Every structure is written in C-alpha cells, then in structure tokens.
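Hi everyone, sorry if this is the wrong subforum. Our group has a chain we'd like a structural model of before ordering constructs, and none of us has done structure prediction before. Sequence below.
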Amino acid sequence: MIKTRLLALSAILSMATGSMFADAAPAAAPGALPVLVVQEVQTKDADAYVASIAKINALVKARIGVEHYRHVWEGDFAGSSSHALFVVSAFASATELYQDQDKLKNYPEMDVILAQIKDQRHLGDSTLYKGIRNEGVYDGGVVYNTGIAVTDEPAYLKDLDALRAIFDSSGFKDAKLNLYRAILGREKATHLVVIAFPTAVRLGEFLDALHDKGLLNDWNVEAAKARTSLTNGSYHEITK
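Answer:
Right subforum, don't worry. Here is the predicted structure as tokens:
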C-alpha cells in the first residue's frame, strides 16, 4: 500500500480538510504568505489516484476558476515516506480555505469522482501550515524539505536571510527558499523548510556542495541556536 501525504509546502510543497480537500489549492504567488494543507492518504493505485486528482482540478477550475487546485508530489529519498505521494493545497488564508470549501459544495460532478476514488484511498493525518517566508516552487520541479523544531522564529528568519545570501553567492540563485509554521495538527516539528529546485540535477549539485564542499557548515552552527533539525527528504511533483 502506498502512503500519500498532502504537504504545505507543500508544497507545498503540497495541496485540505474533509473528503474533498484531502484530495486539493492553487500555488501561492512568490512573496505571498499562504496557508498550506497537508493531508496523508493511503492508496493502492497511485496512477489512478493522480488521474482522479486531475479530473477534480478540472472541475474546481470550472466552478471557481482556480488552476491546479491540488498538487501531487512523490517522495524520492524521504525515509519511511519514500515513494509515497503527497497532495498539497495552498490558500491565501485559512478563511479562503473554508470559503472555497463552501463554494464546492452541492457539486454533483465532483460527488461522482469522490465516490469513484473512495476505494482508491484512505485518509490519514492532516496538518495546516502558515507561510512565514515564501519564494514559491517550480511546476514539475523538486523540493528538499526539512522538518525543524524552532525555539526563536525571528532569529531563524534572519538565519534564512543569511542562507539566501549564501545561495546567491554560491551558484544557487535558482533555489527557492520557503518556511512554513505548523498551526494545526502539529506533532514534533514546529516548522517545515522547503527548498525548491527546477530539476533533480540541480538538487544533486546542491547536495554535492552541501556535503562535499561544506557549503553550509558555518551557517548550520549559527542556525542551531534557533532551531533543531528533525527530518529531511526530497520529493518531485507528478501532478497531471
């Protein structure tokens, strides 16, 4: 059985709550501070599930005009979540999340698809994230995610400014840096760091710089004063 999880990061990553939103929102514009929904899903047929999400996205666009309401990601090197799917929904605010949910009620065509996928998936844990720093992600790209426990958020945001400067001066201007705070459904990690790259090759080059050249050795010493890293993993988008 394949496990899937909606992420803010993601990136959403991710893409909501309830039976409809567990399988959904638009990617927030860079600079905006979105709300992300991360929903865990279990499915026996990932391809069929992703195809169903594409149909749902088309219906959502027809009803409320939003493109790619739900984004699906797959875990690559992600520990127990490797080869799992992740659906990420992004909203301008928590209020918009519930407003969109209301707009999509009483939608017979949507009900048909939800009935069809009932046997394809089982809903698991759901987490709501608030964007604190948002540079966005790449459509069809990859992300390097780190779950962290933050003790001093303002100090860590300054650390991320320093990290941005390191990226820019070290050949990684194309890396997009994001931070999300877990506001509902939080367990061990208080925040999620999402670094987005346009391709897996670019992620590989970043990992080589990180571990062969010690790109962030000094930065990590300083950042450790404000946060503890708990988990990490890489993911790529497979939205149809």
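For your construct planning: The helical segments are 18-21, 46-64, 94-103, 108-117, 153-169, 200-211, 217-223. Residues 46-64 form the longest helix (19 residues).
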